[in-house]
Amino acid sequence: MLELHDITAGYGRGAPVVRNATLALAPGESVGLLGPSGCGKSTLARVAALLHRPEAGTVTLDGDPVRGWRYRAPRTQRTAIGVVFQQPRLSCDPRLRLTDLIAEPLRATGRRDEIPECLAELAPAVGLTPDLMDRRPHEVSDGQLQRACLARALVLRPRWLICDEMTAMLDASTAAALVAAVEEYRAATGAGLLAVGHDQVLLDRWCDRTVHWKKLTAAVHE
Amino acid sequence: MTCEPTATADPAWRSYGASRRSTRAVRVRVSVALVAAIVLAVLLVPPLVHLDQQAVDLSSKLLPPSWSHPFGTDDLGRDLLLRCVYGMRVSLLVGVAAALTATVIGTAVGAIAGALGGWADRGLMRVVDTFSSVPHLLLGIFLVAMFRPGVWPVVVSVALTHWLSTARIVRAEVLSLRARPYIDAAVSGGASRWRVAVRHLLPAVLPQAALAAVLMVPHAMWHESALSFLGLGLPTHMASLGNLIQGARGSLLAGQWWPTLFPGLFIVIPTLAIAGLAGAWRERINPRRRSELML
Known about the structure:
The structure holds two protein chains of two kinds. Chain A is of the alpha/beta class. Chain A has helices spanning 41-48, 75-78, 98-108, 115-126, 130-133, 142-154, 172-189, 200-206, 213-221, and strands at 2-9, 18-25, 30-34, 56-61, 64-65, 81-84, 160-164, 192-197, 209-212. Chain A has one domain: 3-Layer(aba) Sandwich (Rossmann fold), CATH 3.40.50.300. The mean pLDDT of chain A is 86. Chain B is mainly alpha-helical. The longest helix of chain B is centred in the first third of the chain and has 39 residues, at 10-48. The A-B interface holds A 46, 49-51, 70-71, 75, 78-79, 81-83, 85, 87, 90-93, 95, 104-105, 108-109, 149, 152-153, 155-156 and B 180-182, 184-193, 195, 199-200, 203-204. Chain B: The chain crosses the membrane at residues 30-49, 90-115, 201-222, 261-281.
């Protein structure tokens, strides 16, 4: 289970961005989170990915309560969740080649020896050809870069995936290919998914259920 | 009818931009030539030319520039050209060593402050403020006065008073980088603070830090000269540009201009050349700033 209970989160100044949001994902379940731009769904996704400490509320990951966020979260908890961000350009270190970009989590967690095997498996799965792997982010398109970002999110074989507007910047065919790659991974591993977006048609087709942002925050008040 | 660009307004603009660019190209070439000549002279003259720069010859003291002594001689009859080259060697060594040390300290402090944030950031930045609140030449004099005259006290003194701006630049850069999604991605991928700093933050600030180091070399040379001129820097027997000018003060009043002028030019010209190169480099790595400056 990935449970967010009564989360209030923001960025310090004035009113919080997210107020009293509650959301629970069953193992293997895929949930679409639908909301307009600027409503706070990305912030909630960051809280769920243990990247942003909420001001109030609790997060429970597979039965264990989360006590720290970012660097203070235990590595096993952090890496249990794979994240794909909205803008591939901003979520890639411009100095790293795609190979290193995808292999970086393996290096960071001391699993260097698995790099060749993982890359050989992941690159075709997300649709990256070998000639792209030696290029740097500025030498590939947004779609190709987002494929690499998805590969990076999957390389540690997380039990949960959080896709924050993963396809918002991409054309329809790339979006479809990425969603297919995510679904293939989930079918193989049984990972749960939180897909954040504003495209109801996509989320309805992609996910087991779609939650509207309003209902997420209203549930507590009612 | 073909659509030709209007010829009336364009040439003026074009020639304006072109002359601007060609002046810059000339400036860069002159700077490169000067820096190369200085480095070559400093590296090659001492091993190849077997003349003793310390040799005293009182029979030929204070000779004006001539073919046998192009820069003239000083009040002990030593050849000034040779003394200037040796002085340049010392000044350049001090300048480069001090600039590198200052940049390493500044980058480390700025990166730690920016990457850790919180109380570490506040604490380190107050240290920076404290250092900045004292005039840096005064602080440098205080530091150098604590040691016996020599090369390393001067390097330490200049380095310890010049890491502040680098620390501020690096901290600001790291603060802005820290909020980028790619750092989030690294954290999510299990990277430790240390790994994020070394793998993602430091490589991003290195070009800025290297530029700051090069820009600091001429500044550090000026400080070496200033400290030596005040008699606090290098020991007086050691030919450094500051020492040469300091030693020439008396003869300047007697109308002998060459012992002051030539070491002075040896300070001014190389520092301008290095600053010119660093400026061209800054324009290259930061083109937006260039276009703002050109308006």
